[in-house]
Amino acid sequence: MNLKAGLFSLLSGFSGITALAGTRFYPITVPENPTLPAIRYLYVGGSSDPTFETSGLQKLRIQFDCLGATADDADALRTALIQALNGYRGALSDGTYLQLADLLGPGTDFFDNDARQYRCIVEFYLYFDFA
Fold first, then answer.
1. C-alpha pair distances (Å), 2 with each of 8, 9, 19, 21, 115
2. Rounded distance, CA 47 to CA 57, Å?
3. What's the CA gap between 117 and 86, in Å, rounded?
4. Which of 6, 40, 84, 120 has its CA 20 to 30 A from that of 75?
5. What share of residues in the chain are helix, strand, coil (percent, to 5)?
6. What is the C-alpha separation between 64 and 44, in angstroms, rounded?
7. In 3-131, which residue ranges form alpha helices assigned H by DSSP?
8. CA–CA dist 84, 78 (Å, integer)
């Protein structure tokens, strides 16, 4: 089971995201001088509820940084990501069952002067188990 692969498959299949970022999803870091818009994602916390027989329900906090050459590009990508993921329930392509993708507020906006790019952050709790 690879939750990252399942999420990538889900999000890269959403036309609102692919129209803006294609398949430019990067774990933790982005390449130098990336093509924008793009999405960077980081796991920032979580917990589990194990039982004697299973690993139990998993709770993962994930942060998505929607990067753009303009503030509007970054914000549009964040909006598309929220539309694709917020409230999602179902099986992912890797066999993980996503019980719920729960949005953690509207997010935060930044401008990185060194990279000359805008960043709109959005975070979710993902509740999942392995099928």
1. 10, 11, 25, 22, 31
2. 9
3. 25
4. 6
5. 25, 45, 35
6. 10
7. 3-12, 15-21, 71-85
8. 10
Q: Which residue has the tokens 């790019």?
A: 117
Token output for 13: 């299949």
The model's pLDDT over 70-124, given as tens digits with 9 standing for 90+, comes to 999 999 999 999 999 999 999 999 888 999 999 998 889 999 988 899 999 999 9
SS3 category, 35: coil
For residue 129, the one-letter residue type is D
Contacts of 111 (CB under 8 A, 6+ apart): 71, 117, 118, 119
Contacts (Cβ under 8 Å, ≥6 apart) of 72: none
The residue written with tokens 């942060």 in the block is: 63
* Crossing angle between the packed helical segments 3-12 and 71-85, to the nearest 10 degrees: 110
DSSP string of 37-67? SEEEEEEEEEEEE--SSS--EEEEEEEEEEE
pTM (two decimals) = 0.89
Residue whose pair of structure tokens reads 């959403």 in the numeric block: 14
